[in-house]
Specification:
Layout lengths: L10 E2 L7 E7 L5 E7 L2 E7 L2 E8 L4 H11 L9 E7 L4 E6 L6 H6 L1 E3 L7 E3 L2 H4 L11 E2 H13 L3 H5 L3 E7 L4 E7 L2 H15 L6 E5 L5 H9 L4 E4 L5 H10 L2 E7 L2 E6 L4 E2 L10
Parallel strand pairs: 1-6, 4-7, 10-17, 13-14, 14-15
Antiparallel strand pairs: 2-3, 4-5, 6-7, 8-9, 11-12, 11-13, 15-16
Helix pairs in contact: 1-6, 7-8
Length: about 280
C-alpha cells in the first residue's frame, strides 16, 4: 500500500522487507537451534525506465535507499525533482520517476568506479572533480564529552547486528549526542545512502550534524558525508589513505577508532573541544 505523499514529497511505496529471518543451525553440541540471520535482496534501480544499478540490500528502507543513491551520485538535484518511488519485490526492482528535468544521464552513468565498500559501492560521474565545490561549516564545534555520550548510545542501541550480525550501521546525530536516525544494511554505503534519502525527504540540514559509521572510512564514505554537508565523520574502525586525503581537502573532521572514551582525530581537529582531563606528566 502506497504511503500518502506529503506536500513537496514524492509518492512513495511502503515496501520494507523483514530485517531478519530465522533458520536452523547446528551448534557445537550437534543440536539444531533457531538462529536469526540478516536479509539480503537484489534491488535493481530504474531511473525514468533506464536501468542504473543492482544494489544488494537488507530491504529495510528501499525507498530512502533509492533516493539517497540518486542524491549521492548527483543524478538528481533535488527531492522536488522526484515524482514517485515505487518498489516491487516481485521483480526485485525500484522505479524512480522524475518530473522530466534531468539531462545528460547517459554521460553521467557512462563513467563509474567500483569502490571498496562492502557489497561494492558504485560512484558515477566525476564526483572527485565536483568535490572541490563542497563547502563545510567551520563555525561548529564538537565537545569530546558529547562524542563519548554518542558512542555510549550507539553501543547500547538495539541493532540488527546484535540479533543477526552481517550488517553495517550508520547514524545521523546532533552535536549534543542525540541520535536522529540509525540505519543498517548489508553494505555501509547503502546505509549512508538511505540516511541521505531520509534527510532529503524530511528536509534535514547536515551542516551542524555528525555522521557515525561502524565501517572503515574510505574515500566513498568521505565524499558522501561531504555531499550531505556534514562536517563530522566518526567511525569505530580505521581509515584509508584516499579517505584521509579527501577529508583534508574538503576540511572535514574525521575521527577514527572511536570507542568508549578513546578516539583519534585524523583531520579537522580545530573543530574539537577537548574537555576530558589530560593525564598529568610524570616528574
Amino acid at each position: 500500500m502506497a504511503a500518502k505523499p506529503r506536500r513537496g514529497r514524492p509518492k512513495l511505496s511502503s515496501a520494507a522487507r523483514p530485517a531478519t529471518y530465522e533458520v536452523e543451525a547446528c551448534n557445537e553440541r550437534g543440536e539444531m537451534v533457531p538462529t536469526s540471520i540478516a536479509g539480503e535482496h537484489p534491488l535493481t534501480l530504474y531511473l525514468d525506465k533506464r536501468e542504473l544499478v543492482t544494489l544488494m540490500t537488507l530491504g529495510h528502507a528501499p525507498e530512502a535507499l533509492a533516493i539517497g543513491f540518486l542524491r549521492n551520485q548527483r543524478l538528481v538535484d533535488s527531492i522536488a525533482d522526484i515524482a514517485a518511488v515505487q518498489v516491487d519485490w516481485e521483480t526485485d526492482s525500484v522505479a524512480v520517476v522524475t518530473r522530466g528535468i534531468r539531462r545528460n544521464i547517459a554521460r553521467k552513468i557512462g563513467k563509474k568506479t567500483v569502490t571498496t565498500g562492502c557489497g561494492q559501492g558504485t560512484v558515477f560521474g566525476d564526483l572527485m572533480q565536483e568535490i572541490d565545490s563542497v563547502k563545510l561549516r567551520s563555525d561548529v564545534a564538537l565537545e569530546d564529552a558529547q562524542l563519548f555520550v554518542l558512542l555510549e548510545k550507539v553501543r547500547k542501541h538495539e541493532t540488527i547486528y546484535k540479533q543477526a550480525g552481517a550488517v553495517h550501521g550508520c547514524a545521523l546525530a546532533t552535536l549534543e549526542g542525540e541520535i536522529l536516525m540509525f540505519v543498517e544494511d548489508v553494505g555501509r554505503h547503502n546505509a549512508v545512502d538511505a540516511i541521505a534519502g531520509f534527510m532529503w525527504l524530511d528536509g534535514i540540514d547536515g551542516a551542524d550534524k555528525l555522521f557515525y559509521t561502524t565501517g572503515r572510512l574510505t574515500s566513498e564514505m568521505v565524499i558522501k558525508c561531504a555531499q550531505m554537508r556534514i562536517p563530522f565523520l566518526v567511525s569505530r574502525s580505521g581509515l584509508t589513505k584516499m579517505g584521509h586525503d579527501i577529508a583534508r581537502q574538503v576540511g572535514l573532521t574525521m575521527i577514527g577508532r572511536a570507542s568508549g572514551r578513546h578516539y583519534l582525530a585524523f583531520t579537522g581537529k580545530q573543530r574539537l573541544k577537548i574537555t576530558a582531563p589530560r593525564p598529568t606528566a610524570l616528574a
